[in-house]
């Protein structure tokens, strides 16, 4: 088995060989580039101009964010719902909660005045109309009735097909 000193010596020898090969290849490449530049009449100034952005760049245009940045922008436009009493920082209630509220057992202590109303009331307020508690209860009852009706219809369909409702 080789010792550490022997392996390090081999590494150094291989590194010197790699450097010599790289120098030889780079010399050949530079010669080819110079020949092509002479053939087409290109100068180093032309190369500098071409690298300054006059040509078409690959990839996404500057300022074009990805989907996650679009979501962050949308979340940043929401009105703040919570406020930190110490620092005054606000949070909309969407996305990742900030450190000052993430471990709070009851977030209602941080609510900004007017943000304590229910979600359906907030949605209606955005639409420009108020929603009463009776209206919300009526919608809930009608949803439950629709579910029951759907179940009854499914039972009738299975009976018509000759299957029992149990299996």
TrEMBL record:
- Report biased composition (Low complexity) as residue ranges: 130-140
Keyword rRNA-binding listed? The answer is no
Q: Name the Gene Ontology molecular function terms of this record.
A: DNA binding
What single Pfam family name could you report for this chain, choosing any that match? Histone_HNS
Q: Per the database record, which ranges form the DNA-binding protein H-NS-like C-terminal domain?
A: 72-112
List the record's Gene Ontology CC terms alphabetically: nucleoid
Is the keyword Cell wall biogenesis/degradation assigned to this protein?
A: no
Q: Which stretch is the leader sequence?
A: none
Basic residues compositional bias, start-end: 141-167
- Which keywords has UniProt assigned to this entry? Cytoplasm, DNA-binding
Gene3D superfamilies given in the database record: 4.10.430.30
Q: Where in the cell is it found?
A: Cytoplasm, Nucleoid
Annotated segments matching region Disordered: 46-101, 114-167
Q: What is its main location?
A: cytoplasm
Which family does the record assign? Belongs to the histone-like protein H-NS family.
Full protein name: DNA-binding protein
Q: What organism, scientifically named, is this protein from? A: Caballeronia cordobensis
